[in-house]
Amino acid sequence: MSEAQQQALFDRVSDALRRTEDDTRPIVLMTCGLAGSGKSTLAKAVTARLPNFTRLSVDEIIHSKHGVYGVDYPADMALYQAYMDEAGQIFDDLFATYLRDERRDLVLDRSFYAKEDRDDFRARVEALVGGSGGGGGGGGARVVLVFFRPTDKEVSWRRIVERKKESKTANNALEIDRQLFEMYWAGFEDPVGEGEIVIDVV
C-alpha cells in the first residue's frame, strides 16, 4: 500500500483517535476484519502518525520471540498454536499493564472476528480503568472499533492471494489456503450496532 493510501486510511479514523481537553481518557482502537483486509496497515499508520499509540499484535509477539512461520521455525500448526497461546498471554499482560498502569493509547491489531471476543475486550477495558462509556476526563477509556467490511468474497480472497506474493513477515507468514479462507469467511461475525467505524474493503 502506498504512502498516499496509508494516509487516506488514517484520515478515515484520525478524528476519533485524539484526546481532547474535555475528554482525556485513554483510547483503545480495536481493528476488526479478515486476514489481508488492512488491519495491520491501519495499526502501523496510526502509530507512525500518533506516537502516543502503542500497537499490540499477537503476530508481532510471536515474531519477536520465534521469528517467521515456515522460515525461522517449522510450518507446523500444532507448534504455531502453542506459540499463539504463549503470545496471547503476553498480549493480555501487556494490554493490562499499558492501559491500567500507564494509561497508554492502544491499537489492538487483531481480527476480533467474534462478537464475544469484542465484548470481552470492552469488558476488560471497563474492568481495568473503569467505565468506558460517556465523556469526561477521569476514569474509563474510549473504545474505537474499526471494521474492515468485505464488499465481495472474491475480492477478499484475491487480497490474500496477492499477499502471498510478498516477502514473508510477521503479519503474512501463516499460509491461508482456500479452505481456511472459507472457514474464516463463514465464521466471521460482522459488528452491527457496536459503534463501529466502517471501512469497505475493495
From TrEMBL:
What Gene3D superfamilies does UniProt report for this protein, alphabetically? P-loop containing nucleotide triphosphate hydrolases
What keywords would UniProt list here?
Answer: Hydrolase
The record ties this protein, via InterPro entries, to: P-loop_NTPase
Q: What is this protein called?
A: P-loop containing nucleoside triphosphate hydrolase protein
GO MF annotations in UniProt: hydrolase activity
